[in-house]
Amino acid sequence: MMLRKDMCSCRKGMQIRCNISYLEEWLKEKELQSSNAMDTLRPLSQAAWLLQVNKSTDDDAKEITEKCTELNPVQIVKILNSYTPIDDFEKRVTSSFVRKVQSLLQDRDGSTQLMLDSDYRFQVTFPYSPSSQALELLQVPNSLHLGFLTRM
Known about the structure:
The protein is an all-alpha fold. 45% of the residues lie in helices and 0% in strands. The chain is built from 5 helices and no strands. Helix 1 packs antiparallel against helix 2, helix 3 packs across helix 5 and helix 4 runs antiparallel to helix 5.
């Protein structure tokens, strides 16, 4: 989304929000809604909201700075500058509005990182259930081509 203008529209914001809802539902069904998983979705959810909200008045600018707490100022400004109206009812974000948001965000501390850390690894815990099958009696078929395995 940060690198593609075609992803920065109200319609894409609605689509992203819908997909996040499906993910949240799936996490709840699988009982995986750890705070870590939900926290990871929060910046994306706020970015989707930012794409859908009105972006014209001083009150809109104030609301953006109050609600987009998981996005840093660089990310917020990038999304606003990349916003591309698709439908007739949408309007391009004016440069004066972006400057207003920037001035409101000036006091906010935060990273200047544009993208999320894609190398971050999430810890997943799988339950261990021991096999009732005696492994020493297990026969490995030759068709699996696992000749490099040795029985201990």
